[in-house]
């Protein structure tokens, strides 16, 4: 299993590498990486396991964060309405983006970044993605076009950035970290 110690931290070159496409069918090694990434996020939702293994909770994980420069990522997150999303994606490609932007009022965090970077990251409010979707139950890898919006679009773009060697703080406006462009509105989480 991966613990927080296995998560590659900022400063390591692999986080600044453009990842390679994953060869299909999935190799045994790639499958193992993907399932351990998936387990890390699933375990991080469990308070007991977090305490026991010192896991830092996350809503997404990309392969370079475990030292593998290949296009694989996992998302496990509740959206702004409280609905759960779970995606295991291989070779994702953004095919269209909205002009409208969105951002998290709290800024973003990253399992690989221990330093505190303050500022807003404006991302596309909607993205359409062509990707292979892996299903652990059936073992199938199916090509799909997925549309993400709002919070999940933010999480996806954060993880996708890892596949092209970018980190969230690269997007913070250096002169005015809390600048909000006219076409950007915050993600609004429902209260209940
Ligand atoms: Zn990250």
Write up this protein:
- The protein is an alpha+beta fold.
- The chain is built from 3 helices and 8 strands, in the order H-H-E-E-E-E-E-E-E-H-E.
- The strands form 2 sheets. A 5-stranded antiparallel sheet has the order 1-2-3-6-7. A 3-stranded mixed sheet has the order 5-4-8, covered by helices on one side.
- Strand 2 and strand 3 form a beta hairpin.
- The protein is globular.
- The mean pLDDT is 96.
- It binds zinc ion (ZN).
- The site of zinc ion has 5 residues, from helix 3.
Features of the shown structure:
single chain, alpha+beta, 5-stranded antiparallel sheet, 3-stranded mixed sheet, globular, binds zinc ion
List the helices and strands and how they pair.
Elements: H1 28-44, H2 47-53, E1 60-62, E2 72-78, E3 84-97, E4 101-103, E5 123-124, E6 126-134, E7 141-149, H3 150-163, E8 184-186
Parallel strand pairs: 4-8
Antiparallel strand pairs: 1-2, 2-3, 3-6, 4-5, 6-7
